Amino acid sequence: MWITLIAMTVSSAMILVDQTSVPLAIPHAMDDLGADPSLGSWVLTANMLPLAALMVLGGRLGDIFGLRKVFLVGAVVFAGASALAGLAQDFPWMVAARAIQGAGAALMMPTAVAIVSATFPREEKGKALGLLAGFAAFAAALGPVIGGGLASLDWRLVFLVNTPLAVITILLTLNATAPLKLAKDASRNLDLPGVIVFSIGIVGIVYGLSQAAELGMGDPQVLVPVGIAVIAFIGFWFVEKHSANPMIEFRLFRHLNFLAANISQFLAGMVELGTALLLPYFLLMMIGLSPIAAGIALIPATVPIMLAGPLAGKMFDRVGGRIPLVTGFFVLAASGIAFALAVSEREYVYLLPGLILQGIGLGMVLTVNDPTGLDSVPPEDQGQAAGVINTSEQLGGAVGIALLMAILVSDSIHKTQESLAAKGITPTPGETAQWKAFIQKIDAEGLGHIDISKQPETIRFALNDVLAGHVAGYEAVFYTTAGIALLGAIACLILVRKTDRVEGFEKIFVRRSRWVSSNTGRTPAVTKHPPTD
After folding, report:
1. What is the pLDDT of residue 187?
2. Domains plus CATH for the chain?
3. Do 329 and 310 form a contact (C-beta atoms < 8 A)?
4. Separation of alpha carbons 98 and 408, rounded Å
C-alpha cells in the first residue's frame, strides 16, 4: 500500500516538475536547436494541450480498462517521449516529443490519484492523498531549482532526467500495486463523440489563451480558437446529454463537495501555475539573479508545502475539507498581498514572507482538494472524477498564465510608454524589437550577469523606465492572485461540508423548502421537483 503511494507520488511529482522546470531550459534549447526564440512558448504549449485535453479521457479509460493498466501505459509513453525530447535535434522534433509526453502524462495523473484513493481505507485516505498532493506540489515548487541547475549543465538533462524516474515508477507499480477490480456496474463503452468535441474545446481555449499575452485578447489568433472552444463546449453539453455512456457524468457535479473541489482546483491552478511561471522571471529581471540562483531562491516556498500538505491531509480526516480549504485560500490571498507590497523594493529578502505564505496556502489547498472531491463520488467513477479535477487544475493554469501574463505585459508596457512619453520619447518598432530580444537575454542569463555598459544606447537609456514599468505590472499581478484566492475561500465556505450534501437535506434546508432528495441518477441527487402528495 505504501509502496504504491510512493510510486504514484513520484509519478505526479515528475509530471509537475516537468511543467515548472522546463521554462528555465527553453532559452538554452532554442539557441542550441537554432530555432527562433519567439517560438519558445511552443515547448510549453505543445505539452499543455494534450495534457489538458486528454486528462478526463485518461481517467475514463482507467475506469473502463483498469486504473493500473492505463497508468502503466501512460508511464511508458511518458518515459519514451522524455528521452526523445532530451535527444531532439531540431525544433519540430522537440515539439512532437513534448506533445507525446503530454499525452502520456494525461493517462498517468488522474489514474495515479484514483489508484491511491482506491488502495487506502477510508480512515487513511485523506492522509494518503494529502501526502500525494503535498509532495507533488512541493516538487512543482522545486521545479525551477531543478530546471535552473540542470539547464546550467545541459538543457537536455531537464528532459532526460524524467526517463529513469518513470522507469522506477513502472517497476514499483508492477511490484507493489495489485490490479484493481473493475466495478461491476461501471460502463465499459467509450464516448468517442464526447471525447472529440471535448478535446477540441480544451485545445481551443488553452491555445487561444496561451497566445493572449503575446498578441492581446483582441487578436484573431486568440478570438478564433476561444470562439471555437465555446462552440465545442456547448456542443459537448448536448452530446453528453444524449449519450448512453457519457465521458463526463454531469450528475457528479450534484455532489457539492465534488463541485467545490473542481472550482477550488481551477482557482488554485491559476495561482500555482501562473506564479510558477512569473516568479522566476521576476528574480531574473528585477533582482538580477542567475537562473540557478533564481531556482534556489524559490526554496522557501517549497518547504512549507512539504510540511503543510500532510498536516492538511490529517486535518481532512478529522474535520473534512471546509476548514483547511478556506484557511489555505486565505493564506494564499495573504501571500499575494505580501508579494504586491514587496516588488517595489526589488530585493529578495522582502519576497520571503510571500514565498512562505504561498507555500503554506498551496500546500493546504492542493492537498485537500483531491480527497474532498473523490470522497464524494461512487467508487466506479473515481478515475473519471480524478480526471475532471486534474483537468480543472490544468485549465486553471492555462487561464492563470494567460491572465497574469496579459496583466503584466499590458501594465508594464503602459507604464513604460507613459514614462518615456514624459521625456518626449516614442519608441520605434525597431527599438521595441530590440527590447524584446534583450528581455529574452535576461530570461536566459539574469540581469545581474549582463554588462549593461556594453548594451546599445536604446537599452541603456530606457532600462530604468522598463524596470519601473515591470514593478507596476507585477504589483497588479499579485493583487490579482490575492483576489483569485479570496474567490476560492468564498466558494469553499459556501459549498464544502464534512459530509457531502447529496443526502440528509432535512438538516440543511429550512422546513418549508421544496428541495427533496431524489434518485434519478445512479446516486442520490438534488431536484427542485416538489414531492408528490
Report:
1. 55
2. 2-177+247-414+472-495 (1.20.1250.20), 502-533 (no CATH)
3. no
4. 27
